[in-house]
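User: Second chain of the day. Same drill as before.
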Amino acid sequence: MAATDPVENLQALIRCPSVTPAEGGALTALEAMLSPLGFRVERMVASAAGTPDVENLYARIGGDGPHLMFAGHTDVVPPGDEADWSHPPFAADIAGGMLYGRGAVDMKGGIACFVAAVARHIEAHGEPEGSISFLITGDEEGPSINGTEKLLKWAAGKGESWDACLVGEPTNPDALGDMIKIGRRGSLSGRITVQGVQGHSAYPHLADNPIRGLLQLTNALMEQPYDHGTNDFPPSNMEVTSVDTGNPSVNVIPAKATAAFNIRFNDTWTAESLRTEILRRLDTAASDGTLRPGRDPVRYDITWNERPSHVFLTRNDPLIESLTEAIEKVTSRRPALSTTGGTSDARFIKDYCPVVEFGLVGQTMHMVDERVAVGDLEVLTEIYGSFLSNWFRHARGI
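Assistant: Same format as last time:
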């Protein structure tokens, strides 16, 4: 049966230059793998003002019974200077037991392996006693506006519902079987602008340096810990990610200064309670005269990123155990259950069904010479195949 070889699947996908937001032929290649297996494939284009249109794919096989979704993305980050690559980024060359190409691990490799696992499952058992679906976006590496979130809403509007989801992101730090992601920290971003009075650096009494005020505010954001972590999450982490005055002159005190920040937060907080805490810290620091003795409180404005990512944790024993058992069976490793790392499209999926993440080793993702061990593709396919059998057995109460 076609599509049972994960290496061939991955090579076909890598050879499609689907640099976000371009489809690049990747969804067409995926449709060509799934349709002969009996999947009903639909392509959906999502749009929003000020953003590029994005093509997405939804495919389903099966009927009544437990419904398992596999989610992922075929869009990839740009390769950079292709001359820096030892193998062309879209050639899918194999050398020294490694398959090279942009998207090899993030995350065309996970998709290729799941397709192979499903193809083998159908070859051995026929259609699943339930349903399997693929929910694949072309907007995960982009702004994530016209991708998974809208595709989920579109599919749900057509009557689709799911019992569980596996996202094929590269979750393993060192070796296959290291880690399952069972949740993600939230993410909240904003920008602070401090107003000052422009002037000559030799006459500071005639000016008001906004950098002094900005230092007070950013120090207050980062100085004290927000929490000490929970049983399921590491401590929340605040970082100032940029500081700017737009001032090219060394002897002019600028009129304003801005700083951007991002905090990755655990389940001690919600986005709303965190905003309140950040404003409390800023208001307290604004009146601190350490760097601005004798001055009025710092004048500042804050703007928030309109799309915070909310913290979540999956507590679904059948899903987690089905995947853990499969990993142990194939690799003899018991994976850690982790909530580390950045955000993923699982943040949208958790509103529809329980979701976990497991894929390849992520050491080369987004790098020059992104690559995956050919042997790992077979191992991951075996894990996914075992997981399919486990999950449907658990879901049917067997």
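The chain has nine helices and 19 strands.

User: Great, on to the next one.
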